[in-house]
Amino acid sequence: KKIFEGFGEEKQKEYEQEAIKMWGDSARKSIKLWNSYTDQQKEQIKQEGGAIYADLVDAMSKGPESPEVQAILVRWHEHLRHFYEPTWEALRGLGNAYYEHPDFNSTFTAMHPDLPAFLQRAITYYCQGKA
Question: pTM of the predicted model, to two decimals?
Answer without folding.
Answer: 0.83
